[in-house]
Specification:
The complex is a heterodimer of chains A (105) and B (143). With 105 residues, chain A is α/β, with parallel strands linked by helices. Chain A is built from 2 helices and 6 strands. In chain A, a hairpin with a 2-residue loop joins strand 1 and strand 2. The radius of gyration of chain A is 14 Å and the shape is globular. In chain B, strands 1, 2, 3, 4, 5, 6 and 7 form a 7-stranded antiparallel sheet that branches. Chain B contains 5 helices and 7 strands. In chain B, a hairpin with a 3-residue loop joins strand 2 and strand 3. Chain B folds into 2 domains: 67 residues, VC0802-like, CATH 3.30.2130.10; 72 residues, VC0802-like. Chain B is of the alpha+beta class and 143 residues long. The chains are: A alpha/beta (105), B alpha+beta (143). At the A-B interface, helix 2 and strand 5 of A face strand 1, strand 3 and strand 4 of B.
């Protein structure tokens, strides 16, 4: 579990939001950073042929839709970033979903 | 009178475009026309190539997300007002251009405009009615 600006976030919740959004694969990764003492959450989602479009606006709409769903269901604002297929590391066994880059002090 | 265009999803970082050209180069596929649309995070590369099927297959093999879209190629005189005449016709018929790009053919004195429309069939009809030259794929894929 992650705590982002006081909100509990379970990766499984993000996963179900992605799966409910049409055409998305479950390949995603959560990047947590601390910028100016604020925690930020970036959700990286792989773009495969089901969701790809030659139009920029279609892909940007998708980003916004995911962002809105995360905000609605979890109450946390996340940046959604579309990434190339297979750019998220595949691991054998338990997938590494969270990359926490916050300084542990 | 439609043309096959490939579109490729690219992350906006150094070396990605180079990876695409490497794959196409090794496959012996020639790029006839290209346009790159970019946002802060990602870009979409749009290509008209000599062999669409081969290019798509090879790029997919190398892990790229590739899409295929029908676009329309129009030939105009390479002189002031060439593009304007075409856009004027489209504008009067309320046809929206999703995006477009252009190139000049070395062998001819004409310029080629590539259009992506939402209502492609209607656009072709309007262009033809205005006596604008719509090119077939075969005329463009070949060098």
């Amino acid at each position: 579990m992650l705590i982002i600006r006081g909100v509990n976030v379970f990766p499984s919740q993000i996963e179900s939001i992605l799966l409910e959004t049409e055409g998305l694969t479950p390949h995603y990764q959560l990047i947590v950073r601390r910028e100016d003492s604020m925690d930020t959450l970036e959700v990286q989602v792989e773009v495969d042929e089901n969701i790809f479009s030659d139009k920029i606006k279609t892909l940007q709409r998708l980003e916004k839709k995911i962002q809105r769903n995360i905000k609605d269901f979890l109450g946390v604002t996340a940046k959604v970033k579309l990434v190339e297929p297979r750019s998220i590391m595949r691991s054998e066994g338990k997938a590494k979903r969270i990359i926490d880059l916050r300084d542990k002090k | 009178m439609k043309l096959e265009q490939l579109s490729i999803f690219l992350e906006n970082r150094a070396g990605r475009l180079c990876e695409v050209t490497k794959v196409l180069s090794e496959a012996g596929v020639n790029i006839r026309a290209l346009a790159l649309a970019d946002t802060s995070d990602f870009g979409i590369l749009r290509l008209i190539v000599s062999d669409t099927e081969k290019a798509k297959h090879t790029l997919k093999e190398h892990g790229f997300t590739v899409g295929r879209t029908s676009v329309v190629a129009v030939e105009v005189e390479d002189k002031p007002g060439g593009l304007h005449r075409v856009l004027d016709v489209l504008s009067k018929e309320q046809i929206n251009v999703e995006y477009m790009y252009a190139f000049v053919q070395q062998s001819k004195k004409n310029a080629v405009l590539i259009f992506r429309f939402d209502r492609t069939d209607q656009a072709i009809e309007v262009l033809k009615r205005a006596n604008i030259t719509v090119l077939s794929g075969d005329e463009l894929y070949k060098v």
